[in-house]
Amino acid sequence: MDTTYKHYDIRLSIDSRLEQVRVLSGALHGIGKELQLSDDKLGQLELMMVEAVNNVIEHAYELQAGNDVRVRVEYSPQAVHLIISDSGHTMPDELHSEAREMPNPEDLPEGGWGMGLIHLLADSIHYIRDAKGNHLHVSKQLD
Amino acid sequence: MQFSTHTQGEFTVVAIGEARMDASVAPELKHSIAQLLADGVTRIVLDLSQVTFMDSSSLGALVSLLKMVGNRGDLIVAGAKGIVADLFKLTRMDRVFRMTESVDAATCAVAA
Known about the structure:
The complex is a heterodimer. Chain A has 3 helices and 5 strands. Chain A is of the alpha+beta class. Chain A has one domain (about 10-100, about 110-140): Histidine kinase-like ATPase, C-terminal domain (Heat Shock Protein 90). The longest helix of chain A is centred in the middle third of the chain and has 22 residues, at about 40-60. The longest helix of chain B is centred in the middle third of the chain and has 14 residues, at about 55-70.
């Protein structure tokens, strides 16, 4: 039986530990397979999500376990929206500045690519800080 | 982090045995390969053909290892595909690493 999904709204949550990020990836893969996303789109969504969640754990929670990292996956046939939320410290300004430049490869950087990758892969992106914490919205068009 | 090593020609091939290289395993990956370098290995082909996902933390670990190798040897990345290959391209680190489609292509290209 063919199933056509009009809309999906899925909420995932992990503890703020890097070893739990793979669980989010597994859940995203399950969602992606169910919604018949291409391997390319799914890989791009996973990389955006993982980089964003790594930033939350490293910057908002400063690598402290015991905190909640939330990922909301909103699907429509046209786009997937990921909302990555936390209740940690305000993200460093430079992490969410409008102009994101990748580190120069010739400098042999060992980090600093995360937000740049998200900016390259996302069709839209915005960051909100409110009383509940940090919320990063990223969208990927499917058509 | 599961990986195996074997010798192919002048190279030590380090084959990553897991589908995922992320921030939770990057330090261990770096430590393990750094230990090989400390043991005197200088020409390494890193076989990523089994890896289906890699994040920028692991890429950072590989850059650190590339610096350790320096001019004394090689660190060739073989078999990257899909989003793993895209990660190198998006960060433009494909210009820094020597990258080949396969381990054989890495060892043959250097031997030729």
